[in-house]
Amino acid sequence: MSETLVSALTMLLVWGSLLWKLQTLHWRPRDTIQRSYCGALLALALAMTVPHPPIYRAVDRIIGIPNFARLLGNGLGVISAWAFQPVITRLLRYQARGRGIFGGVWAMIGTLSAMVYLFSRMSVPQSAPLDFQQRYGAAPFGCASKLCMSIMRCSALSGRDAATDASSAHAGAAVAAPR
User: Fold this and answer.
1) Who has greater pLDDT, 154 or 36?
2) N or C: which end of the chain has fewer CB within 10 A?
């Protein structure tokens, strides 16, 4: 299978998952967890759509900045991980923080800001939807930008931030305890 076909199938799978979830919720997510899950799926669907080669090229052409679609897709991936935090928190039975979907917003904003700054410092003169890593993987600031995004995704998916670290021992015991 070609990379474009795999990209298209993955994109359709994520969009189908979002539509199926919204349909089962009667198009109206009612609580924080449902809204977080649907928001994360929407951001993930957008993050998977932007790197699709025809869309990637169109975004770069419209914006006028080579490889801006890459930054946009990675930023949407960070937003997706951030939006999914309340679901992880609930699954791991951490204590509720009372901040709902906006928990850890400063970590997300900091990550996005660092990614934009590092992207602006990179020299990426040509749009490269299919071979970005081969062409620009060794560019200055490229690795740092990717590392920054990975750290945010890992911290978001671990369900932890400064507010939950205090209760992690209690939560870990609750998850490990047999029911």
Assistant:
1) 36
2) C
